[in-house]
Design brief:
The chain is of the alpha+beta class and about 55 residues long. It is built from one helix and three strands, in the order E-E-E-H.
Length: about 55
């Protein structure tokens, strides 16, 4: 359809499903109902923050 596949089930029935708080496009798999974002980036937690939380 649009060249996307679901990372959970490899389904090809993918539709747009709004935007994440970062502004990136969200997608929904119509087969398994899994929601995902392409090329998501996670900000690593600094060691200082980990120490503070512990």
């Amino acid at each position: 359809m649009n060249g996307l596949t679901c990372p959970a089930c490899e389904g090809v029935y993918i539709v747009k499903n709004g935007h994440a708080h970062t502004g990136k496009q969200r997608y929904l798999c119509r087969v398994c109902r899994h929601q995902f974002t392409l090329n998501h980036t996670r900000t690593p937690i600094s060691p200082e923050t980990v120490t503070l939380v512990d």
